[in-house]
Structures are given as C-alpha cells and as structure tokens.
Amino acid sequence: MLETQESENQPHRRQRKQTVVWTRYYRCHRATIREQNDNNNSEDEEEELYDDDEIKTHPVQKKTKQAKCLASLKVTCYMDDINNVVISYLHEHSGHTPRSIEDVQFLPKSDKLNERILEELRKGYNVRSVREYLQCEYDSLPITNRDSYVNTVDVYNIFYKYREERCAKDTVDFASDQFSFGFSAPWQKELLLSTAGKFISSDATHDVSQYSDGVMYTMVIRHPIVGRGIPVAYLITNNLSSTPLVGWFYSLASLGLTPQRITIDHDFAEDNALTTVWPGCTTQHYVWHVQRAWMINIKSKVVASVGRTTG
C-alpha cells in the first residue's frame, strides 16, 4: 500500500518530443483543389472561349477530375532516423473508387505515350486515326494502367499544341515590307499532282489580311470522285507583281506539277508568271472577268454618235 502511494506521488515524466526534420502532405489526385461553380459559364467566360468568328480559342477540355476526395497522406522524417520516414494515412477515399476504369482515366499519361501521339501526328494522320491506332497498340496493357485508355481529348490537346508550334510566326517573318507564303496540305498536294491537276483554276482574293495590298491566290481543281471544285494550294502575299507568283509556280513545278490548262481572272501578273514557268500551258480567262472588262472599256471608250434628223 505504501509503495503504491509513493509511486502515485512521483512526478509524471513528459515524453521527449521527437525533432521533425521535414513533413510532407499528399492529397488524392481527385481532391477538390478549389471551389467549382456548378452553374454554367458566365458571359465573360464565354467571350474568352470564343473569338469574333465563334471559333474556340482553347483546346477541348475534359470533364473535371475533382471528386471532393478527402484522402491524404502525411509523411514525416524525424531527426532520430533521417533515413526512414513515417507515413500516416489520414482519411479514406470518398467520391470515387480507386483503380477503377473511371478513376484511372484522370491520371496523367506517360511521356512515352505522348511521344507516340506526336510521332503519329507528324506523319499527317488526323486525331481520330491516331487515337484508334494507338488504342489498339496499347490495348494489351492492364486496365489499371493509364496508357491503356487513349481518348480523343488526349490526342487533340497534343495536336492543338503541335499545330500552334507549326503555325507560329517566326521572328523574321514579315520583317520586310513585302512578303509571300505558299502552302498546301499533304492531301491537297496529292490531289494537285494527280491527273486532276492537269486542269487548274486560279483566283485572287484581295483584302484578306491586315497587311496593305494583301491578296490570296487559290488553286482549284475538279475532284476526281465528287466532281466539284476543291482548293489544293494557296499563296498569300502583299506583292502584286509577278515575282511571288513565279517563285510559287516554280516550287510547284519542282514537285512535278505540269498543268495543261489554267483558268485565271485576267490578271497580267498571273499571265506573265505562267508564261515564264509553264510556257506550253494553255491560259484562259473567266467569262465573267472578260465580260466585265468589255463593259468597262465600252463605257469608257465607245461613244455613240447622235444622228441629225431632218423633217
């Protein structure tokens, strides 16, 4: 009895608190990072998503991965044992099922898959073809692997960045007062160099850019299957002489283009350029432009004489 009383009277020794070197907290990848507005976008947000031509100005976005999950880990390193850490599991997962198909799709793709997507896009394939091809290639992976799910949004977002990089203006672009830029898509080039490219229509559209005297020349051929006109090559320039046209035609000729007949809109610059590059090509003019030229000259040069009448 005495021993017990003495032990109770002894002062309580406080346990020495361990010195913490560092502490890290890790939240579930589907935790709510910020408050989300469940309502539709405001008018200001809509204006940011679309430009003046009602065209989206940002990549397609996936639905939010935030599921208000409270699961988190606390990782602590103590001075007594700096080579090891203590992991504390704070909360259970909520709002989603870990490792499920719906959950895995929100994990980031591997760098290898991103490189494969970019590799296929550089070959000229469209978004759908790339997605279908890579889905078959990665279909053998386990369902818990993020790369086993290749969706259209994954491919499109990489395509969007790839297209922006290719279309970005170089630092020396338009450095001078005059410029010219010709371009054509791979499928357009294939049609242009086919037998359908023997007969071409060319048209000039003025005031197509912010640059003074901007003009866009468009080459159009008859599609061999549809039977309708389809554009196959473009040239944008602010030089109204035949110089950019000669360079454009020579570049197309180097690819193997040898047209038999080209229809143009009675432009002297085009006439001179065609004669220089393809002297054996037949040139004809649009009927509308010919009639318009006739009427302008008739009104300005032909004056009807008024006969004198006698009684």
UniProtKB/TrEMBL annotation:
Residues 35-55 are annotated as: Disordered. Residues 41-54 have a biased composition (Acidic residues). It comes from the Eukaryota. This is MULE transposase domain-containing protein.
